[in-house]
Amino acid sequence: MSLRIVVCVKYVPDATGDRRFADDLTTDRDSVDGLLSELDEYAVEQALRISEDAEEAEVTVVTVGPEDATDALRKALSMGADKAVHVEDDDLHGTDVVGTSLVLAKAIEHAGYDLVVCGMASTDGGMGVLPALLAERLGVPQVTLLSELSVADGKVTGRRDGDAATERLQAELPAVISVTDQSGEARYPSFKGIMAAKKKPVETLDLEDLGIEAEEVGLAGAWTAVESAAERPARTKGEIVTDEGDGGKRLAAFLAERKFI
Amino acid sequence: MAEVLVYTDHLDGAVRKPTLELLTLARRLGDPVAVVLGAGAETAAPVLAEHGAVRVLTADAPEFADYLVVPKVDALEAAYRAVSPAAVLVPSSGEAKEIAARLAVRIGSGLITDAVDVTAGESGPVATQSVFAAAFTTTSRVAKGTPVITVKPNSAAVEPAPAAGTVEPLDVTFGPLATGTRVVSRSPRESTGRPELTEAAIVVSGGRGLNGAENFALIEALADTLGAAVGASRAAVDADWYPHSHQVGQTGKTVSPQLYIAVGISGAIQHRAGMQTSKTIVAVNKDAEAPIFELADYGVVGDLFDVVPALTDEVKARKG
Lengths: 261, 320
Ligand SMILES: Cc1cc2nc3c(=O)[nH]c(=O)nc-3n(C[C@H](O)[C@H](O)[C@H](O)COP(=O)(O)OP(=O)(O)OC[C@H]3O[C@@H](n4cnc5c(N)ncnc54)[C@H](O)[C@@H]3O)c2cc1C
Ligand SMILES: Nc1ncnc2c1ncn2[C@@H]1O[C@H](COP(=O)(O)O)[C@@H](O)[C@H]1O
What we know:
- The structure holds two protein chains of two kinds.
- Chain A is an alpha/beta fold.
- Helix content of chain A is 28%, strand content 30%.
- Chain A is globular.
- Chain B is elongated.
């Protein structure tokens, strides 16, 4: 039987741009160009490697996001994913992680899955908890933050480099996993891949299709509320000196003046 | 007074510093009740009591060590039901953050992760977060249910505040998902003898400019004269010059020490995300245009192979 792999990819504002908040204190998606979260490229890469090793497999990429988020799906399709699901609805504006996990879980169930692959964190919100929430909602094991993994005999096995220890983990499929940026460089889409992606199916769903009420998501339905957002005062550039043989000594004098030594 | 649940991060009973910081924050919101899971509760309890825990709820079972995340969610949920707290505070470590998230969904409560401060507000706790690579500071509140908040290391001072710390066993029933993720093997990280990266008052980090694993000895020597932790940029980690557990930045650790010394690091946005909130930043780089100098309180434009050994010698000399 075919192994059904679903990859969750997020469309995020470019981290190298000048990211800001909109007036309603949600992430301003207009001031900065969006792209497929770089950390989700690692998830797509691992999904493709698993599918290449499997006898038969199908890779579906799923995103919850605005209209432009199709860019993220196209990028994943051009890397080699087979098809895509895009959940888009005006009522989703301002949804928090709890709401996003609800929508994604429904979309993943709709697509059908044996293995869900996520990135380690989104590069904008960066909470890194969505994979755990998906596992909770789907009622399947979570094997998260893997820097190395394999899928065989209906099980996923991997290595997690934790704060205090390195662990080898294992769970039976179906399962939700997340992979780190140590898991292996993501491939670049080939010209052929980019051309092929244009013809691959992208299914668009709204909240109604997934049986979700508008009140359960969006800014108003969020279980958390941002009350203020202030730009951090730019650090004032300090004294920069050029080493003329005395750089180390001068630096030590600065540290002494600041009472570090 | 309302009780506040505090999840204890510990290693066989040795309580990690971030949990003691949580107790300081919890005392602003109510009476801290600590939850200690796994072996070592008898060692942990007196330390928790010294820092303000009025009660210490403990549970031990093989599931906590043999399976990841879910057994601890089951236990924390049991503690939540037993206590009916005003808030749940959890350290922002890898596993604990996931435990907090799953608890929040289970109990129908909003979740805030990676707070750098928590204060008592008129309608519940207010959490401060540092977002977009620390370019913005936000304050947030949980709008539904009992606030579940995870807090980063170094967010508050550890304060002694002796309390009863009565040890009480916690009754835990594991659900069917508890044994879903098996820990096949575990190799604890070897201690370097240096301070923990996220807890250290001073961090010395090396980047691609080090030009080889062997040259990290220069960073370690400087770190040791200052009693500092050692960090690394992703470029240095990807080149296998230093272990990933020392990476500072977006996909590594966030540090917020009194003093951060960046050596041979350009200062890419993803690196800045992990160190931008350091109190004092110092940089050594041979490129005067390196973006790290925009953040530095003091910078030396020069070759690190000259500047760093000279600095180490001078620090040693001054320390006598
Ligand atoms: C999704 C994503 C996540 C990332 N996460 C992280 C992260 O967590 N942490 C992180 O650090 N990076 C991260 N990066 C990578 C980041 O973008 C940079 O590539 C990286 O930080 C560069 O490391 P570096 O400063 O050591 O190397 P470089 O940018 O190559 O800088 C080396 C510096 O050393 C200086 N130098 C060279 N020789 C000497 C000498 N002899 N004396 C003095 N100075 C010298 C050079 O002038 C230069 O400024 C991430 C990137 C992405 C896309
Ligand atoms: N809106 C979204 N659509 C699809 N996947 C998402 C979305 N948000 C988060 N994810 C997935 O969840 C991972 C962790 O996200 P986060 O918890 O937001 O840091 C990401 O790397 C993605 O794989």
